[in-house]
Fold DUF6993 domain-containing protein.
Amino acid sequence: MTLDMLTLRHRPANPRMRVRSGFVALALSGAIALGGCSLLPSTSQGNGDAPAASQSGTTHPPAPASEAPPTPAQELSVKVKESLGSLAAGTKSPSRDQMKAAMVAAGANPDTVEVSVDITPTGLAVDAMEAADALEGQCVVGQVRDGQASVTVLPVLASGRCFVGDVH
């Protein structure tokens, strides 16, 4: 027996396998096609969720869902974005003290503000400065990199802090 006889490309296809493969492919295609139809939005006139037409023939849009009021962390993040944006406009790479001052000016608690290090262990300047403050289970984290400020709200770590490590 040679290697050529063992490869599938030299064996003729079994007619039963062709029929079976065709049936499986047809069944899978049908299942996918029918299953996908249920994911489409309904456009039927009898749908109870559709807005009712008034006597004049116009439809009224549904009332907008009431938005939840912003959390204290979301409110602080807006102020931090403005404060760090002003700082970033004046300096490409702020110091730790400048970052903390900008966070406090935005309304962060001066006793709980965490600021990243501004010099690497090898003595080089860092690429970005970050500062954060925990507020009601959320961290408002601000970053200044290359004169650009960004802010995000993240969950507090299990330690109760926003940054990992012991330098705050």
Summary: The beta strands are 114-115, 128-135, 138-145, 148-155. The mean pLDDT is 78. The chain has four helices and four strands.
